[in-house]
Design goal:
The chain has 376 residues and is of the alpha/beta class. It contains 13 helices and 8 strands. The longest helix has 18 residues. 36% of the residues are buried. InterPro entries: AB_hydrolase_fold (IPR029058), Peptidase_S10 (IPR001563).
Length: 376
């Protein structure tokens, strides 16, 4: 226990089955920092270039790991980083970049992939899980023609107002949980713009985030006791990671150099460039690299429906259609295996941060995949 915060080892850590290097990226997040404050004004391209440079330098420093299979993985907004970075690695291998990496594939969970598909799929998801009525859904489909967030049609706008009324109090990160996850990085400073879907923290690009915050406040006003059921993402990590002992144990720079650890830093000025990375997935899988795309099936922020929609645009044949996968004798989710080494799975009961909600099942799926299984 440190400063009143108790930590314990997770029995489902991915480090039990693999060597993992976690990267605080872009510079300025977590314990990472820049010597030049101008570097805190960044974008997707610069972030990915920095990540690629980091990987090459890391392997030069630790060449004993070069023979190990390399996989790149991430979730949420890293759905942009992972396929673009993976393609940079693949191109570097083809161009003879040194050191030569033993790159095998990549994995993304509930990742932002195509901003149009991902945001629009939330309406279909809401209907499928019973958050809006059949009538409202049909009215939305007819009036918005699939373009729910950027339409100027009066009927669409009216129906979207009804949609917001029905879903505004829902936790978009996990529809069965209280709307408390704004503490993970969505603060009262959010400025939501329909066309660009901007919010303060890269990694949580979600249509309707501001409405979720306001709904949380309304719920807290009516039911203040609900707060005891919410995870405290704001205070406990800040206390833990900003202690001198934690920084020393993690080999992080002191606060006067790297700044305070904050869940969602305000010193970054981040510009999002990649509207869609579907082509990157296509290029990588056609090159023969393995891909594991999985979704918590209770996430409305980046829903599995949108993920299946963009996968469908690849026009890959299904080698094994929708079927359950198991951990022990329990159904852990559902999976589809496609040609070109593409595997998709849902994790039953999980939200946006899949391994947080269902750590046992997620570890099982990850281990089976990196061990070379073609299906779960």
């Amino acid at each position: 226990m440190k400063h009143g915060v108790k930590v314990k080892l997770s029995p489902f850590s991915w480090t039990k089955v693999s060597s993992i290097v976690y990267v605080d990226s872009p510079a300025g997040t977590g314990f990472s920092y820049a010597d030049n404050s101008d570097d805190y004004e960044t974008d997707d391209s610069k972030t990915i270039a920095d990540l690629y440079e980091f990987i090459l330098k890391w392997y030069r420093a630790y060449p004993e790991f070069l023979s190990n299979p390399l996989y790149v993985a991430g979730s949420s907004y890293a759905g942009v980083y992972v396929p673009v970075l993976s393609l940079e690695i693949a191109k570097g291998i083809e161009a003879g970049a040194k050191p030569k990496l033993n790159f095998k594939g990549y994995s993304v969970s509930n990742g932002l992939t195509d901003s149009t598909i991902d945001t629009n799929s939330g309406v279909t998801f809401a209907h499928r899980v019973g958050l809006i009525s059949d009538k409202l859904y049909n009215d939305l489909r007819i009036s918005c023609q699939g373009n729910y967030w950027n339409s100027s049609d009066p009927d669409c706008l009216r129906n979207m107002a009804a949609y917001q009324e029905n879903t505004g109090g829902i936790n978009r990160y996990h529809i069965l949980c209280l709307p408390c996850h704004y503490e993970m990085g969505i603060s009262s400073r959010i400025s939501y713009e329909e066309k660009e879907h901007k919010i303060d923290c890269p990694g949580t690009t979600i249509g309707g985030a501001l409405e979720n915050v306001n709904a949380h406040r309304r719920l807290q006003d009516r039911h203040p006791q609900d707060s005891i059921y919410c995870y405290d993402y704001s205070n406990r990590p800040v206390v833990l990671f900003n202690s001198e002992s934690s920084r020393r144990d993690l080999h992080a720079q002191p606060e006067e150099i790297a700044g305070r650890w904050i869940r969602c830093t305000k010193r970054l000025k981040y510009r999002k460039e990649k509207i869609s990375v579907i082509q990157h997935h296509l290029n990588l899988t056609l090159k023969g690299y393995r891909a594991f795309i999985y979704s918590g099936d209770h996430d409305m922020a980046i829903s599995y429906i949108g993920t299946l929609e963009w996968i469908g645009t690849l026009n890959y044949a299904e080698l094994e259609s929708w079927q359950p996968w198991f951990v022990g004798d329990q159904i852990a989710g559902y999976t589809i295996r496609y040609e070109h080494n593409l595997l998709f799975a849902t994790v039953k009961g999980a939200g946006h941060t899949v391994s947080e909600y269902m750590p046992r099942e997620t570890l099982a799926a990850f281990q089976r995949w990196i061990d070379g299984a073609e299906y779960l």
